[in-house]
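Example record for the data management plan.
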Amino acid sequence: MKNFLVLAILTLAGCAAARTQTPVAVYDFGQQRLATVSDSEARGGGRLKASLLVADATAPAWLDSTAIHYRLAYHDLAQSYAYASNRWTASPAVLLTQRIRSRIAGISDEGVVSAADGARTDYTLRLELEEFTQVFDTIDRSRAIIKLRASLIETGSRSLLAQRSFDIERTAPTANAAGAVRALTEAGDKLIGNLIAWLTEELAEEKKEAGS
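Corresponding structural encoding:
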């Protein structure tokens, strides 16, 4: 009986050790790709002629973590799940904010800052991340969905100059966390490209009206 108890304890300890040793894959959006995209935008896109504060993006409580979320549309789209052995290096809102600042800095003549810098700027860009999820339509077919609302505010008067919602989807190459990361990264890059195009247009129009 004593030997049996010892064996059972060792078996349970081994199982617990195996669980704690499960490797966790940690992802970000990929810095090398970021540099390449920024360079092409700086060469071929329009330039921002105003200083801009890009505030930290906000997100709902369920999305404010490092978890990689997914939904099962074929089961219950209202339920959100998270991969157990995969996560982001920071919350999606933080990663997306960093990505947006870096991309805008590449095309800005007047500079981009965060609230922590304490610098005065001409305009403020506020971001609200509403969805950043992999959605499974079937067991083996999924897509990335990102939804974000952007508000452009004149800092001095605190007046809202423009607001727009962005909704981007990308098919995931594989039905797992790695596929989610790749699709969400690509969707994020597309969304940021659309955001920058909108921002450039709005600021150019604002400058034209101010000079008329």
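Summary line stored alongside the record: The longest strand covers residues 123-138.
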